[in-house]
Amino acid sequence: MTYNCYNKAMSENNKKYSIDEISELTGFTRRTIRFYIEEGIIRAPAGRGRGGFYYDSHLSDLMKIKNLQDSGLNLSSIREILKSESGDYQILKEQEEVFEDYKRDIWVRCEIAEGLELHFKRSTEEKSGRKINEIIKIAKNISKEI
Amino acid sequence: MDTDNDFGLSLITGEEVPLEGVKVKAYINGRGSKVIITQMFKNTGKNAIEAVYKFPLPSDSAVCGFRAIIGDRIIRGEIEEKEKAFKIYDEAMAKGDGAYLLDEERPNIFTLSVGNLNPQRSAIIEVEYVSLLDSSGNGAKFYLPTTISPRYIPDNMPDQNGIPVDETINPLFAFDVDYGLKISVEVSGKDLISSIDCPSHKLKTSYGSNTICQEFSSDTVKMDRDFVLNIAYREDLKSRAYYFEDKKSGVGFVELDLSPRTDEKKDSSKSRQNEIIFVLDCSGSMEGSSIVQAKNALEILLRAMKPGDKFNIYRFGSTFNKFCDYSVVYDDDTFAKALAFIKNTEADLGGTEILAPLNDLFKGDDNKNIKNIILITDGEVGNEDDVIKLVKLNSAKNRLFTVGIGYGPNEYFIKGMADATGAASQIVHPEERIEPKILGLFNNLSHGRIENIKIDWEAGTQQSPSDVVLFEGGNVSVFAKTVRIPEKIKVSGMLDDKLLNFEIPVICLGEVESPIPQLWAREAIKELESGMVMQPGSAQTRRKEKSVNDKVIEISKEFGVISRLASFVSVEERSEEEKTKGAAILKKIPVMLTKDWHGLKAGVGAPAPLMSTYDSALISSNNICEGEPPFANNEVSLNKKVTPDSFRSNSSGQHLRAKAFSVNNKKVILSNDREELLLEILSLQKPSGGFEISEEILKALGIDYNNLKETAKKIIGSSFDNKFTPFQFLYSLVILEVLKSKFSDKKDSWEAITGKTENWLNEQNMKYKPLIGNQGIPEFIKKNVLPNLSSAI
Questions:
Q1: B91–chain A nearest CA distance, Å
Q2: Going from the N-terminus, what domains does chain B have, and what CATH number goes with each?
């Protein structure tokens, strides 16, 4: 499967996120996400220019970077890891079934406040739709009162 | 785009950039300045672009204006929280509108983003700031950096918000760029000014009715070095206070410029023993003129020390080493060894890992006395805040004086470290005389800090800065919000155990526009930012950090002043036809590598730097003048006639070293150069006190060497032994009397460092009671030597 085919398949099968949503879910600022796109660390959004949208694949790429950062790595080291893994990733991406399994196993970490995180499986989010987003918003509101 | 990875930098060659040029218009009045920087962009390509330009500003500037001029439209920037500002910018770009964003990365590094610049279109960006000049005595210094020197980023430095620090503060670099700088500086109060000199560039001068205007003598210059303009006023700057009411908010602000002067004579015999640690930056960026200048400064400082002081020397780069394991007592032997240690020093220690030597210095600090540290560096690091935090945590027992050198030192870092410990800093341009500045710093170190300064504002609140650091002879500006107009401001402080009291009447500025609220805001922000010096990790720290951040953003927005947490943003809404279609191509604008950085000969073809000087009495032939100079009748001045050539030879980094060793080679000293003569005299002071005898210096003073030697043979006294050398004693006393009578105007340069000679002479006097005939030696010198000195001094 070529990259374009993969992208098309993803766009048909996956949720679309705006940059605000993807920023909220990952904890990365809009500025940081733009920087990663400029540097080729993640792919550009689909659609035209900056107003494009993002897929689960963007989300999982960003969460992977986030997890590596949380383990104490800086971007320079993360680039090296991503580079060395890129072959594996490509295989995964080209094997949709394997990728779907992989995707279902992804745990997403969402920082609610300093020292407080919400963890949920990607498959759970798929089942519960936007409710996860609502939970995140409510949790953030409650955390402001702590 | 070709790139070269020398020194870990991406050096760009042959890239066409959308920045056409930079113009600066500066207005100076007393010790205040307003500056407008205009950057002109043009997209000559076929696709829309996003131009990103990193540029420097003085670290104390309050950036309070940001405008984009597109054709006949002026779009004013608004201050917004940094990420919100980016969102506004980003969304405008997504819509195809023009978008303009100015971020502060460091107090002296800014990033301008010009978004969606369509093909064949231009954009003019204006950045406005106000600042107070560094001032001392009767002098004020206007300083404008033009390029960012490459900053060394330690390997273990964490990313900021997931972005490497290198990306936020280091621009792309080029040996040469097509765009250049034009500058025009208008200095008000023509009749109050005695001289203006520009050690960094050659200028031409023109005169208005009350102003002196300085511009580059060539059309544009390369942006590869700081611009420096030294203004000397006829009289010392005086303490003063201004009240200004912000009509919009109804809030009053006071600016207090403190310049306390005391005529107390200092008793050098009472000054305490110091421990001084010299820390010399030997990283690669210091290669070239910087390391020569640094070694020169260190030698001057070593010569100025008192017998009995303790000292040590650190050299650092990627690693560090020391002169001795622990500080040693200063005497003839350790001085000679230290000189040899310096002589063998090169800028060959790699990166700029400054934390390691400082940690070594601070560890096991059980000494009760305050340790004085003098750091000589270009300050080209990216972990400024980590170093400043470390220094501040250790400020109870250490004072860190800093000397910044090179064509583009990191002024924020150099001042920030000194400020964190209540010490002083000096930045010396390579074309400036280093000696007076270094000796002035040494004076600050020995004594002269006014402690425990308290200011009674009558009705004042929110003073910024809350801790005032002021050295005798220096100036400082303090700001406060007030609820009503104060009549006068009372200031008290302690200087050498003596209570000082001052009262400064307040001048109300009425309807006049004033930047005082913005200057107050800048100081308040700076203080809030520097206050965050707690160990990271605790919940309390995080809560406090959030509350400080919120306060910084609130002040930024209220006063329209940029900060690290709040940016300027503006949006140019476009019609459908004008909107940018598709994604704009990112164009990072390279900046020119700082002259002589790493010893590289950057800027080939750039105009040669020539010192330019305006003097109220004499105008040098190389300083092009237009209009009427204020003192065309060649009023008597002690300054010699200045020509670029004579300055060149004096201002070489090798100056004092060459002179110090030239004596044995019978080098002739030009008797008409007072300042050079003074420095020559001082360079021959012995570590234990007294001066090495120099036939050349005597000749320059108009004293016959043989006559003086014969006179010394007539000295009588009691219990002479082989430790008393009459000629040495007489010579040293003559020199000291010459300094007192003929160089009283330069007392700041010599008084602190000749204390050891005064002590040495007093000891000899007490022990041997020397006389000539029945006269004391000082009386003899006053009657017979001083009246016959050369008229040239």
A1: 8
A2: 240-265+450-557 (no CATH), 270-427 (3.40.50.410), 654-788 (no CATH)
